[in-house]
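Posting for a labmate who doesn't have an account.
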Amino acid sequence: MQVILSPQDQRDLHYEIECILRMFLPQARIRFGQEEEAGPETVRVVTGAGAGTENRVTLTLPDFSGTESEPAGGSRRDTEASVCRCLYRLLTRATGKKIAWGVLTGIRPVKLVRELREQGMEEEAISRRFTERYLTAPEKAALCLHTDRVQQAAIQRAEKKGYSLYISIPFCPSRCGYCSFVSHSIEKTRRLIPEYLEKLEEELEHTAAIAQEKGLVLQTVYMGGGTPTVLEPEQLRRLLGKVERCFDRSRCMEFTVEAGRPDTITKEKLEALAESGVDRISVNPQTLNDRVLEAVGRRHTAADFFRAYELAKSFPFTAVNVDLIAGLTGDTPDSFRHTLEQVISLEPENITVHSLTMKRAADMIGEKEQRLAGVSQVGAMVDHSQRALAQAGYRPYYLYRQKSTVDSLENVGFCKGDTLCLYNIYIMDETHTILSVGGGGVTKVVLPGNRIERIFNYKYPYEYISRFPVMLERKDALRNFPL
């Protein structure tokens, strides 16, 4: 599909236009070009400036042609929103499909709520902004407002010099078919783990020294991956002991480890976590349908999950989280509902419901029938989960969206009482700096004026090991930031 802009040099519109197109036409090949390159599938955008002019979008498909227009606004943000609304309406007419989030393409809609609230807007006005400017469904606007209310107290607990530490363990017992994270099956990379951990400990020491030099205050720690519990108990003890020795945890409010895969969880590993001060863990089955688990390449059963969950609850962790995914290959609304009912009956402190996201790195990409499996049903699964969890006493405490999510839906974490995960809120809200260590880690430095600077670690374990000195040099840039 060819996208033609007039005036031509409007690169600030490229991203939003492409996002809207991919919501409706996920398989389309999108190119920005000029009129002479126009083909049978074309989007023409004409933006106006000044009084009495308009923004106009024309969509041409083999079986559809139409135009939408709106009066031109005064700012570039107004122009962007106007063009997106026009394109959205055309695509809705052409496909018969509606997107619940409208033209809101950002991954942090709750952060937008907070920003509007800080500008003095009341909730009713914020809701109107979502539904009228962004064409968001009222229930999604309400979800954002509810989530913002729940997380306000947590955001207020963030200190001015506070930061979170993220530790990456990019190894898994096997790679799931939908996974796009930096993770490698230990069947192929087990030999790299000892050297990886040596380098990781060195990076922890290096990072702690910089944090101390800058006078930063550690508030949360999160170890993710991958699957951190692929490590042996003694490897966990050694790594967590390094964290204890290097970092001042006297004002640290939580320490989370994403145990994740039930087939990696043992009593000895949980003992190592509990002894080291970890107070939150995840046990993530994604589904309790054994046939679906097999279809997506997870080498465990629902029975393995129940065993691991019961074992985890025998330890004094403050919170246990359970992750589920709506839209996995072979799952149905009834099957998903049954999974959710079983998980709710266990009464975990946190339940997170993800909508299936298929990124380029996922093994299932390219298998069209799998990539689109359940597209028409995922929204029903997500809507049901939010109703059922609310009825069971859970509150939404963090929410984010991702590109390539089926039906452009959301991922939502729910909590009982005040058991929310601070790290999840802080990274999504960009409340304070996140210092990341390990393969694929992204350090996000929050600077005055809400400016974000990022420092990227090498993604893959072999790169992380072989190019380690270069990576440490990158991290030294932290010393130059006004933290």
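Reply:
Got it, the structure tokens are right above this. Residues 193-213 form the longest helix (21 residues).
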